[in-house]
Amino acid sequence: MRRTATALIALLLTGCGGGSAVSDYGTVIKGAKGATVPVEVRPGQRFSLAVSDNPSVGDNWDLVAVPDTKVASYISEERESDGDAPGSGGTTYFVFNGKQPGSTEIRLRNCWRCGQDKTPSTEESRRESGEAIFTVTVIKPAG
Q: Which CATH class is domain 20-138?
């Protein structure tokens, strides 16, 4: 019994998620290249902006700029694979916390096959690259 409790405590302390820094993504809002998605959260609410990706074919999502830190604070970027097979796609999560009431825009950019310089070097790369835009509003709590 004692060994089971010790193992459980160790598991809780290390977290779940295969090396993930954050195990709680909060409310997940999905976006995609070329889409603008409205997001409404409360102060203190954790939320994640999720985009499908597949690094093996060249997807590389980045946060374009940190949003207004009075409205939303950036926590981390996490990735989960859809499978163990080489070339498996997955999802990248950009995790935030809602702060004070207000609005901000969060832009995620997929620079497709851009390499280290993060600039599309071919016509195909320019065509396949793009942004997912999230308009985040932190609403004033009722009361």
A: mainly beta
